[in-house]
Design a protein that fits this description.
Helix content is 64%, strand content 2%. The chain folds into two domains: 4-73 and 147-243, Serine Threonine Protein Phosphatase 5, Tetratricopeptide repeat; 77-136. Helix 4 runs antiparallel to helix 5. It starts with a strand and ends with a strand. The protein has helices at 8-13, 40-44, 55-61, 65-103, 111-136, 149-162, 166-179, 184-196, 200-216, 223-237, and strands spanning 4-6, 241-243. The chain is mainly α. It is built from ten helices and two strands.
Length: 244
């Protein structure tokens, strides 16, 4: 069987509107996608659905990739601070409860619970205030997004890829999938990069990760895209499609 040649550059940097996997609904489905993406045009049209709303994504969509890289890194650091603050809060509550149990001989005086509940109320109030402010200003572009650190790293890699810095992009994609296995598009691009180096074993590992995501994505919005890239990578790993 003759192998098909596909220009991998279009697969790697041909996308300009990329975002997160929206949902993974665990519902049974026996449907299979019977049509594979066999042409270069179909490969170029692989997209990922999502939402944009901050300065980083705005810069990326505008083609300002150096600015986008900087902004996505700011998002990553902001998300990391939120994670650390959340962890510190949880550890503080735990230590307070342990201290109360030790000092009170196991009798709960209610002091630590009061402090704990007060902290939770204060935290919830802050979150509610933030949510209300976000809802009120939903049409405005946010300066930073302080959540989903893996996605911020992934989009940093996408920006680096557009800037022609493939090694930096690969490093970012590796960090993204290490933090979150649902970053299937990062797995896809890593697989393509490894196929270019004739590392079929490494590419197959990323294909396995994509197929694992697919098993969890019975009825999610990105299912068709994941099926398409899985089929394409399987052909590439099997040698039915050659990348150049």
């Amino acid at each position: 069987m003759r192998s098909q040649k596909v220009k991998v550059r279009h697969c790697l940097i041909g996308l300009t509107a990329v975002s997160v996997l929206l949902s993974t609904q665990l519902q049974a489905s026996n449907q299979e996608d019977s049509q594979a993406a066999n042409t270069e045009e179909e490969v170029e049209n692989i997209t990922v659905t999502g939402r944009a709303g901050d300065a980083a994504m705005q810069a990326f969509n505008a083609g300002e990739f150096a600015l986008a890289e900087m902004k996505f890194k700011e998002n990553e650091q902001c998300a990391l601070r939120v994670e650390r603050n959340r962890q510190a809060f949880v550890e503080g509550v735990r230590e307070s409860q342990i201290s109360q149990e030790v000092n009170g001989g196991g009798v709960n005086t209610g002091s630590s619970m009061t402090d704990s509940n007060a902290a939770r109320v204060e935290g919830n109030s802050s979150m509610n205030a933030i949510a209300a402010k976000t809802q009120k200003n939903e049409d405005k572009v946010r300066e930073n997004t302080c959540e989903n650190r893996a996605f911020q790293i992934y989009m940093t890699g996408m920006s680096q890829l557009q800037l022609g810095r493939a090694e930096d992009a690969e490093s970012s994609f590796e960090r993204a999938v290490a933090l979150s296995q649902i970053q299937y598009d990062a797995h896809y691009r890593l697989a393509l990069m490894k196929l270019l180096r004739q590392d079929k074993e490494g590419a197959a590992d990323h294909l396995d990760a994509i197929n694992t995501i697919l098993k969890r994505c019975y009825d999610c919005e990105a299912r068709d895209e994941i099926v398409r890239i899985s089929d394409f990578l399987q052909k590439a790993v099997d040698g039915k499609i050659k990348l150049n």
